[in-house]
Amino acid sequence: MQVPVELRPIRPEDKDSLSEALTKLSDDTVQRRFMTAKPRFTRGELRYLTEVDGHAHAALVASPLDHPDWIIGVARYVCDAADPTSAEVAVVIGDAYQQQGLGTALGLALTDVARENGICRFTATMLGDNEAAHRLMRRISHHLVSARPAGGVREVVAELAA
Questions:
Q1: For 126-160, how does the pLDDT look when each residue is reduced to its tens digit (9 = 90+)?
Q2: Complete edge-to-edge strand list for the sheet that includes strand 73-80
Q3: Angle, CA of 141, 145 and 148, to the nearest 5°
Q4: If exposure means fewest CB atoms within 10 Å of the residue's CB, which of 3, 17, 128, 154 is most exposed?
Q5: Domains of the chain listed by start with CATH number
Q6: What backbone torsions phi and psi does residue 67 show, to the nearest 5 degrees?
Q7: Is the separation of the CB atoms in 160 and 121 below 8 Å?
Q8: How far is CA 42 from the centre of its chain?
Q9: Per-residue pLDDT reduced to its tens digit, 61-101
Q10: Beta-strand pair 73-80/153-159
Q11: Is pTM, for the whole model, over 0.85?
Q12: Beta strand pairing status for 83-93 and 121-127?
């Protein structure tokens, strides 16, 4: 099911849509994204996730053109306070829209935003068996450093080309 989508920055008024999107994710997708159960967002989390500055914390969402109030994918980065040229990155795509290139499109668009904001590297913490996330990181950067600290988790650092 290939759906035409709009990619745009997240907005404060997306709180309800983001909350609804979380309820539509399968347990497996939630586990891959958050590495734990996540039945709902708190009000504080929704504020943090939707009221971003677009520089040190940026997020893009994907919405179907025929349902612009739906969120079917999110890609975000948050800069490291100690090193503003480095940012933690995460992407999640709704189950019905996975395996269609949407994660890649969001990830590459977010990479462009990051470069414009002076970010030189993305870091990601992911489950070792999250092949989609590993493929995305390889698409974002040809220079990856990866380590397996413990418990099936992998830390990946992707240098962003200028």
A1: 887 778 888 888 888 877 677 666 667 888 889 99
A2: 5-9, 57-64, 73-80, 83-93, 121-127, 153-159, 144-147
A3: 130
A4: 128
A5: 5-159 (3.40.630.30)
A6: -140, 70
A7: yes
A8: 19
A9: 999 999 999 999 999 999 999 999 999 999 999 999 999 99
A10: unpaired
A11: yes
A12: parallel
